[in-house]
Amino acid sequence: MRYLILSDLHSNLEALEAVLRAVPPGTCDRIVVLGDLVGYGADPNAVVDRVRALAPAAIVRGNHDKVSAGVEPADSFNDAARHAATWTLDALTAANREYLAGLPAGPIILDEVLELCHGSPDDEDEYVFEPTDAIEALRAARCNVCFFGHTHVQIVYWLSGSDFDVIVTGPDEETTIRVEEGRRYLINPGSVGQPRDGDARAAFAVFDSDRGEVTLRRVTYPVAAAAAKITAAGLPEGLARRLALGK
Ligand code: ZN
User: Fold this and answer.
1) Ligand 1 geometric centre to CA of 162 (Å)
2) Fold adopted by 2-245
3) Which residue, 74, 95, 80, 54, is CA-closest to 204?
4) How far apart are the CA of 65 and the centre of ligand 1, in A?
5) Residue pLDDT, tens place only, 46-59
6) Which residues of 144-175 are buried (b: 16+ CB within 10 A; e: fewer)?
7) pLDDT confidence of 24, banded at 50, 70, 90?
């Protein structure tokens, strides 16, 4: 089974379309979404419509989905994120708001082979940045392969007994990792719509459960077009600027 793993789309239609063009229909069996479909970007309805049409096999909610659908207050958000969430709540159609409000919290286990969460298997809103957080998350995971999002950083952590390592992807368009027997993996596919690892390219992953391989991928997309829409919508200028920086 081949799974297309998408996370942190953040209302960036140009990035989502570039990713879907890079993975033509039929090349993956199932689509999985790790949350934050909306927030920050200017195309919430188009992105939610696109995701709904893809009929994901599994999807979990992100913190921006909750706030932008009115499920939670924006208390933990900075000014730009709060502004964008309020704007998104107003822009969403009733059907799309309802869809986001009804998304389940992670973690979810799919096909008994992969676990999905937005933040960590322990806490959907937790940020896994530090190795200590990653080790804790790896211990909390119930599957040997667990995908997470939220940090917008494409990265792989693995744990086997007392052995632990981190794999950071470089400038290549794709990096393939073999899933070794006896190791537990915590994998962030990176963010489709607002990468923050210093690489502006849209990030995603493909997991082939039969071959035991995860391919972390990057694709270019028309960043200037997505940024111009953010500016035209009257959203904070920093949200437009950061797309080109990948931060
Ligand atoms: Zn996010």
Assistant:
1) 31
2) Purple Acid Phosphatase; chain A, domain 2 (3.60.21)
3) 54
4) 9
5) 999 999 999 999 99
6) bbbbbbbbbbbbbbbbeeeeeeeeebeeeeeb
7) confident
